[in-house]
Amino acid sequence: MEIKSIVINKGKEKSIQRKHPWLFSGAINRIISDTGEAPENGELVEIVDFKNNFLALGYFSDGTIAVRIISFEQAEINQEFWNSKIRSAYQLREKLRLTDNSTTNMYRLMHAEGDGISGLIIDFYNGTAVIQAHSIGIYNNLDFISKGLEHVYGDKLLAIYNKSAESISKQTNEEVENDYISKNGVPNLTGLEYGNQFNLDWINGQKTGFFLDQRESRKLIADYSKGKKVLNTFCYSGGFSVYALKAGASEVHSVDSSQKAIDLTEENIKLNELKKHQSFTSDTLDYLKENTIDYDVIILDPPAYAKNQKAKHNAIQGYKRLNQMAIKQIKPGGILFTFSCSQIVNRKLFYDTIVAAAIEVGRNIRVLHHLSQPADHPVNIYHPEGEYLKGLVLYVE
Ligand code: SAH
Questions:
Q1: Which structural domain, as residue segments, surrounds residue 221?
Q2: Residue 52 within a domain
Q3: Which one of 121, 211, 274, 381 is most buried, counting C-beta atoms within 10 A?
Q4: pLDDT tens per residue across span 229-247
Q5: Is residue 202 assigned to a domain?
Q6: Do residues 116 and 228 share a domain?
Q7: 279 closest CA partner among 261, 304, 302
Q8: CA 279, CA 275: separation in Å to the nearest integer?
Q9: Chain-wide mean pLDDT for the chain?
Q10: Are 210 and 106 in contact (CB under 8 A)?
Q11: Does the Cβ of 211 fall within 6 Å of ligand 1?
Q12: 183 and 265 in a common domain
């Protein structure tokens, strides 16, 4: 099949030569195609410079990011291509000692640009691979991707679940549904993370079912929880709460505005046979306002407040208000774990926002840890936008 060429404006090749994986629509000079037609959303295209030199291959889309690059070399996008991409992602997780680990059997296998494939997320949950395609180009390759997973995992793969409906439906007029692509065995409905057990529900859960990206921060909360009263806000499935209780917290309160999330939390508390826990279905700000606060440890892990540049200002105000409230309420000598997963709010901006919140309240605060996403969510050094999760651990006197 003919591959259409996207010719880019002079000077715009620099970012691609530096291996940045996105081509913005404003950089396009013209499109060369035999038929004279523009590429369709999801079509494989090649990017060439103004002298027609090959730069990269990627999937076209009609948004601001016009091409999501999947190869900086000429390549056939066939089964072998996908096998090698999945194999290489797997080999990194092997190095991270996640693939054969008696206490942790869930991890991110494929982290989009961080693993060289813009638009593809694959999470592995104790035998089940959950795929999220974020572009039509990737979605059209689901068959290759599934076979690649089977090729790399062999018998260790019990099922493959496609959870792309939400993002793909927005980009096409077709009805797209989430469903199993294959089921070679009975999927395990619980998984382990540092020896803690969690129920898994990729069908009804948010994102792919579980927030794997907080694994290392959850582990760290254990160090600060013994004998402490802990408040876990935006708790989702209660990950931080389980770690805190296992580590000997005197009491843990979990808060989420979603009843479904609270149900998941309760299930996980039960699964780990833990007591001294209470959950509250509430907006976090309301909860912080209404309750006399005597918490030693507070966790603030809100969803992304800003999904685009336009929302940035409001997001910053949101982070400031939330953190101000927690800083005001926490007990003297308290420990605050605070996060932002908005890609658009970078580490410095997040830090400055926390400083602004601290100044408003006026308490003495020291930074104990700078946290980020774990190694199975790697950041491609040429794609700094991939660093989305930022966290601080603060000591509030
Ligand atoms: N800390 C969690 C992940 C948090 S995801 C973990 O370790 O798994 C963000 C959560 O915030 C979601 O469960 C969502 O339901 C909840 N949420 C969103 N807005 C909220 C609000 N205003 N108040 C409380 N919870 C909220």
A1: 211-396
A2: yes
A3: 121
A4: 999 999 999 999 999 999 9
A5: no
A6: no
A7: 261
A8: 12
A9: 96
A10: yes
A11: yes
A12: no
Ligand 1 pocket residue status of 236, Cβ below 6 Å: yes
Number of structural domains found in the chain: 3
Dihedral (CA of 380, 382, 384, 385) sign? negative
**pLDDT per position as a tens digit, 98-135:** 999 999 999 999 999 999 999 999 999 999 999 999 99
Distance from Cα 303 to the centre of ligand 1, integer Å: 6
Q: How far apart are CA 288 and CA 291, in angstroms?
A: 6
Q: Is the CB of 234 under 6 A from ligand 1?
A: yes
Terminus-to-terminus CA distance in the chain, angstroms? 66
Cα separation, 250 vs 269, in Å, equals: 15
In degrees and rounded to multiples of 5, residue 116 shows phi and psi of 85, 5
For residue 142, the domain's CATH number is: 3.30.750.80
Same domain, residue pair 142 and 184: yes
CA distance 118 to 21: 7
Query: How many angstroms does the Cα of residue 255 sit away from the middle of ligand 1?
Result: 8
Determine contact, residues 56/6, Cβ cutoff 8 Å. Answer: no
Identify the helix (H) or strand (E) that includes residue 262: helix 259-271
The whole-angstrom separation of Cα 363 and Cα 365 is 6
178 and 285 in a single domain? The answer is no
